Amino acid sequence: MVASGDPRMWKSTLAKASSFLEETQHRVLQGINPGGIYEAVWCRDSSYIILDWFLSGNIDGAIQQIFLIWSHQIGPDREEKLVYGRGSPDMKFLREAAKEDRKIEFEGALPTSICHASFSEVYGKYPDIDSTALMISTTSWILNKILLKNRTSTRSSPRPIVAAEDSPGYVSALLSRLGITDPPEVTEFVVPRMLKAVNYLLTRDIDRDGLLEQSHNEDWMDTLLRAGKIIYSQACWLLALTNFAALLLKLEKESEANNMLDLAGKTIRGVEDILWSEESGSYTNVQVTDYVGDQSGTLTQDISHYLVATTEEHLVANTLKNSYRESIRELAQIDLHARSAKTLDTIKNRLWKNNWPLVNEHDQKITGPRILRPQEYHNQTFWPWATATEILARSRFNRIQECDILFSRIVSENRPTARHRGIPEIVNPRACYEWINPLTDEGGGVFPFRTGISAVRIVIMEILERIRTSALCPSTDPYTSPNQGQNLAKNI
């Protein structure tokens, strides 16, 4: 019998994966904006695209873009114009210019989008949790990998690939002017800014239970009006904390690293104590009492991000300090593997419709500012970006057959349609679309959508690397370190 973690079990998926990597390389190197009408740099999207650049060998380009984004961190000393509120029902979906008091309140956060050299936007009433947290995570992960390989600024490398001519002109202009590619210099620049970003995010834990609270539309689902303690946002926060802690440890900043690990432990305890539902068999969002949408209690695909966050390599590595183990000692009584397995089963049972993984369970009647029809945008659609994260979660539990089903759905071509952009007979891998209508198999939104393409590529590259290093082992418990062979709970 072939073990569940045996590379031979991945043969079907890997054949499709290799072809997809080769065919999409040129698309992701055209810029760090999502593509199409999304001409601005969106921080959450860029976190995926920049990581893809790095993994694809465009190291200098990734470093340049990291510097660029963190140079737009919100603060009272920033002269560029900042607007906010366009996605907030509290502000009647009207944006306002942020005055100095707002910039002080938002200090440390990253904007939702960097529209050009002197203009940025916060989409909601407050900065998105995921936009800031995901950039902390990606920045820390990349710089940690570079330091691990002892790269220096004197190394020779090809000329960095920057934004293509058809992407926003300001990006190319800024990169040309800045020319920042030296990892130690960029590290010195961004670490204080990431510490400031963590301090901002901490202000969103209003009731001090370890969970960050958000207002309406302050995450990637910027039409569903969800507000409160959202699993996806906790996952982004946890990724930021653990990856930043690993970088700080590498920089011998042990005190700061331990602070991050303490916060990570508190976040996990909060999720497990407050956001786990035995009745639902999954983690569930807790909406605010004055919630204006109609998604309360609705299962969403992006809860799979939490399973990814809790199985990150730094969470099970033996490099973590005692402060982290102390902070989550109570979790020794919680079977994280069993809860994660139940969650994956629940997602499959309730969100997979004829093998179409949908982003949410029910038709949403109340959305805003954009009014959504069924099977449109965030309303019961198939998103390759979100599905890539679900694949990553399932792969870490060696649920290979389910990964293959989902991956086949992503990389297969959609049906020809004459209604997309008015061009007849368009057939492309579904991963190239922002979202897909599961009833008609028509691509919707931006094409090509670099965020989704990069997310899929990142998952492929992780799986390939784990097979190469034999990290895919017969054990189906990702809370076991390949190096230690011990259960996380037992280590703490």
Characterize this entry briefly.
With 492 residues, the chain is of the alpha+beta class. The chain contains 17 helices and 13 strands.
Mean pLDDT: 84
Ranges where pLDDT stays below 50 over 5 or more residues in a row are: 151-177, 481-492
Query: Biggest sheet, open or closed, and with what strands and sense?
Result: 5 strands, mixed
Total helical elements: 17
Helices and strands, in order, run as HEHHEEHEEHHHEHHEEEHHHHEEHHEEHH
Total count of strands: 13
| Oligomeric state, counting identical vs distinct chains | single chain
Shape annotation:
globular
Strand order of the largest sheet: 1-4-5-2-3
Radius of gyration: 21 Å
Structural class based on helices, strands and sheet pairing: alpha+beta
Strand content: 5-15%
Distance between the termini: 34 Å
Helical residues, percent:
40-55%
Explained architecture:
The chain is an alpha+beta fold and 492 residues long. It has 17 helices and 13 strands. The chain has a five-stranded mixed sheet with strand order 1-4-5-2-3. Strands 6-9 form a two-stranded antiparallel sheet. A two-stranded antiparallel ribbon has the order 7-8. The two termini are 34 Å apart.
